[in-house]
Design brief:
The complex is a heterodimer of chains A (about 500) and B (about 325).
Chain A: E1 4-13, E2 16-26, E3 31-35, H1 42-49, E4 57-62, E5 65-66, H2 72-77, E6 80-83, H3 95-100, H4 114-127, H5 143-156, E7 161-165, H6 173-188, E8 192-196, H7 200-206, E9 209-214, E10 217-223, H8 229-237, E11 258-265, E12 269-276, E13 281-285, H9 292-299, E14 307-312, E15 315-316, H10 322-327, E16 330-333, H11 337-341, H12 348-360, H13 367-380, H14 397-409, E17 415-419, H15 427-442, E18 446-450, H16 454-460, E19 463-468, E20 471-477, H17 483-491, H18 494-497
Chain B: H1 7-26, H2 40-65, H3 73-90, H4 95-118, H5 124-143, E1 148-149, H6 150-153, E2 159-160, E3 163-164, H7 165-186, H8 188-198, H9 200-205, H10 210-236, E4 238-239, H11 247-257, H12 269-285, H13 296-318
Antiparallel strand pairs in B: 1-4, 2-3
Classes of the chains: A alpha/beta (about 500), B mainly alpha (about 325).
């Protein structure tokens, strides 16, 4: 049993205040949630707890005693185990090697005691009901299992306080259930939990109390039994949650703006057909591995299909390059803005003007035209940035995402493909991005969106195409579809087969 | 049981064997003449020649596994021969002490590289490129275009602990390869080197002292390059500033052919030594083929590419 307390913790990075006097207490043996929008300071707080960062002022107390955690090793030796959100595994080491990295079981001379580590790994994995061989290389372990291996790693050192940062992001519902059962057992054995998450339903399911951070400050601690998700969202954004969107009718009749027929790329997806009309928002919903990202990437010419065709306004699109796709009127807002969406070495103007210039071709850079294009998007999408000469890393996650949307809207696409357009952005930015999608749909653009956020899908899509194991399992009407119906199509038989 | 020996090393052995078989067949002599390639004297020659960069390739593999690169070993080898030669020939130090001083020079060189990388945060390529010039330059400054003739001071037919001079290089290479193979696979520090090369951020978050691991890797690389230099000085009997010119590329190529990935986290010390032998055989056998004299460099280049491409195809299939 251990108690954890933050006392007036401050941390600034240059002029940016990440934490401005955060204080709250996690009582011994409780499951405590820490929630907040992106940039609220959760990650910074965890990095201080883990010994990656030092606070400028204030302290962390464990069992009432100030704990100056100086390194990740120090955190572990104090019984604080952290499971970070980042992909912190070693692809080149085995599962056992990952669990014991940095704290290997050794002989006196530093020789590795592989047998002991393997036995202990098996024991830990058994405890988590995981059947992964300890000798398997991490690169061959699925993302969900990799997350659980991180939990096993924290458990290997008998921690009394277990801190989890967004541990469910890449897990399916069944895997989340599994993780929560494990966490339940740990609590029963007296481990104190600090759970950081965006997903309020999970927070309400697991935690006794919820602490909300807002703009680096403390916005309140709530007893779960006495509060509601709406109250927590209000505390997170500091105002009432935005109203629901107003819908508009898609354009009826005529040639569909985007028609996909019998498109196949094995093993990702097989025989996929659907159409999106002008002014329509269609969502593709499916679990990780259902082939949805591969599908939009293929439509955009990033990978060649085995069979099938894609038409825009009835005209066949050559699926051989993103350039050809963009010239035909397609645009893709990719899943990962950091690695696929933005150039962090270029400024906002160059980022925003790049796709348009690339599609048009030509050798000369017209700075005035670039500025015009960039200005227009910054205004239209209300991207909050210092100047057009700033680089994307100075922007918040939500504004970065709007930047990626903007650079493609600048090309005036007929069909906009969006892959997880609101992943990792805060509530406010999410609402803005939904509005952008709807505004452009109202002007006749066809939108095809991939999302794993089911409430989002139901809130903004006119129709929902549900995929499972690379095939379309059903098409539902967005406004009337119910979550359970969508989930059943997305997961049906998966349980039995797994 | 840890497997100190993996499938990847086995495939390097297979390539080496195939190569030996090929040249044995191709160079089979007419009539009763002795085989020009497969005879004890020539095999020893191949080992002797390969050991010079094979020993340094052990260090190159360690640095590459750690996610870095070291361009300095050729220059460190030259500087070591010069320092050892100077102390032994000019300053009159005993041989073992001169060799020890040479090794310390290499260790120091590795520490300088690591300081530039860890403290000054220079990219390893740049840091070791600069350092390469400095050590080569230092060797020229010390020698002023002379060279130290160690062989004149060594008694003819001399032995170290009963080992004839010709066997010294191969023996040192084999002993060090075995020792560092075990170090990398069975020791905690070796594991940490793999961890840092596999995911530096994760290593930091795991409480591994990343900077210290890097210092260790570059220090070992410097020390092993110096060991090459000492062997070269003693076996060839020379300390000279222009020795081992361009060896850094052969050394890195040996490690890569032996399975080291320049992306870090993957590779093998034993593989690097086998890689050195693969090149040693090529360099020895190609000139014996009539008309191939001018082709050996080109063929060596092609072989590097073919082996690495083959490796990638196999890895991809495995996934």
């Amino acid at each position: 049993m251990a108690q954890l307390a933050f006392r007036d913790v401050h941390k600034a990075f240059g002029a940016v205040r990440a934490l401005a006097g955060v204080s709250f207490t996690v009582t011994s043996g409780e499951a405590h949630a820490c929630v907040g929008e992106n940039g609220a300071g959760k990650s910074t707080l965890l990095k201080i707890l883990g010994g990656i960062l030092r606070p400028d002022r204030g302290e962390v107390r464990v069992d009432g005693v100030p704990a100056y955690v100086t390194s990740p090793r120090d955190a572990l030796s104090r019984g604080i185990g952290l499971v970070y959100q980042e992909r912190l595994s070693f692809p080149n080491l085995t599962v056992a090697g990952n669990i014991f990295a940095g704290r290997e079981i050794t002989t006196r001379t530093g020789g590795l005691d592989e047998a002991a580590m393997r036995a202990r790994t098996r024991e830990l994995l058994d405890r988590l009901h995981l059947s992964i061989p300890p000798d398997r290389r991490m690169e061959r372990v699925s993302a969900a299992h990799a997350q659980l291996v991180q939990v096993a790693r924290a458990l290997a050192f008998e921690c009394r306080i277990l801190v989890l940062d967004e541990p469910t992001t890449s897990l399916t519902d069944a895997e989340v259930d599994h993780l929560f059962r494990v966490l339940g057992t740990l609590r029963a054995r007296g481990v104190t939990l600090l759970f950081v998450s965006h997903r309020l339903p999970e927070v309400f399911r697991l935690c006794d109390r919820i602490t909300v951070l807002r703009d680096g400050g403390f916005a309140g601690t709530f007893v779960t039994a006495d509060t509601t998700p709406d109250a927590i969202v209000r505390a997170m954004v500091g105002r009432d949650p935005p109203d629901r969107l107003e819908r508009h009718a898609p354009v009826e009749g005529g040639e569909p703006a985007l028609a996909v027929s019998r498109l196949t790329r094995r093993p990702a997806f097989d025989d996929v057909s659907f159409a999106v009309r002008r002014g329509e928002v269609v969502a593709i919903f499916g679990l990780v591995g259902s082939g949805r990202t591969e599908l939009v990437e293929t439509i955009f010419g990033l990978a060649r299909p085995d069979a099938g065709e894609v038409r825009i306004d009835g005209r066949l699109v050559a699926l051989d390059s993103p350039r050809a796709a963009a010239r035909a009127g397609l645009a893709l807002v990719p899943e990962d803005r950091q690695s696929q969406g933005l150039f962090f070495n270029l400024d906002l103007r160059q980022n925003l003007a790049l796709p348009l210039a690339a599609i048009r071709g030509g050798a000369r850079i017209d700075a005035a035209a670039e500025t015009r294009v960039a200005d227009e998007q910054v205004r239209a999408l209300s991207i909050r940035a210092g100047a057009l000469t700033a680089t994307p890393d100075t922007l918040s996650g939500g504004n970065q995402q709007k930047l990626v949307v903007g650079k493609w809207l600048a090309t005036g696409p007929k069909v906009l493909l969006l892959d997880e357009p609101t992943k990792g952005v805060d509530v406010g930015a999410k609402f803005e991005i939904h509005n952008i999608i709807h505004r452009h749909a109202a002007r006749g653009m066809a939108c095809l969106m991939v999302s794993s956020d089911l409430p989002e899908v139901l809130a903004i899509a006119d129709r929902v195409v549900v995929m499972r194991e690379g095939r379309v399992r059903g098409v539902l009407d967005g406004p009337t579809a119910r979550e359970e119906a969508v989930m059943r199509l997305a997961t049906h038989e998966v349980e039995g087969a797994a | 049981m840890t497997r100190a020996w993996h499938a990847r090393e086995a495939s390097t052995v297979a390539i080496l064997l195939a190569e030996v078989l090929f040249f044995t067949w191709f160079l089979w002599p007419e009539g009763d003449r002795s085989h020009p390639f497969l005879n004890v004297g020539n095999v020893l020659l191949i080992f002797k020649y390969s050991s010079i960069y094979g020993i340094a390739a052990i260090g190159a593999a360690i640095v590459i596994i750690c996610g870095g690169i070291d361009l300095a070993p050729g220059a460190v080898i030259a500087l070591t021969t010069v320092v050892t030669g100077y102390l032994f020939v000019e300053a009159g130090w005993p041989l073992w002490l001169s060799c020890g001083a040479g090794l310390l020079v290499g260790l120091g060189a590795g520490l300088v590289s690591s300081a530039l990388i860890v403290r000054a945060r220079l990219p390893p390529f740049i840091a070791t490129l600069g350092v390469m010039g400095i050590w080569r330059g230092a060797a020229y400054i010390i020698t002023e275009a002379r060279f130290y003739d160690l062989s004149a001071k060594l008694p003819p037919g001399w032995r170290v602990l009963g080992v004839p001079g010709d066997w010294l290089g191969p023996l040192v290479m084999i002993v060090l390869a075995a020792a560092f193979q075990l170090f990398m696979t069975r020791h905690q520090w070796g594991r940490h080197i793999f961890a840092v090369g596999g995911n530096e951020m994760a290593a930091r978050f795991s409480g591994i002292l990343v900077d210290r691991v890097k210092v260790l890797a570059y220090a070992l690389a410097g020390l092993l390059a110096a060991a090459s230099g000492v062997v070269l000085a003693v076996v060839q009997g020379q300390g000279k500033a222009d020795l081992a010119n361009g060896y850094e590329l052969d050394i890195i190529a040996s490690a890569v052919v032996g399975g080291a990935s320049l992306a870090g986290g993957r590779g093998s010390v034993a593989g690097a030594v086998l890689g050195a032998l693969i090149f040693g055989v090529l360099r020895n056998a190609l000139p014996q083929i009539p008309g191939a004299t001018f082709y050996d460099r080109l063929i060596v280049g092609v072989v590097v590419i073919v082996i690495v491409v083959m490796d990638q195809v196999l890895v991809r299939r495995e996934r």
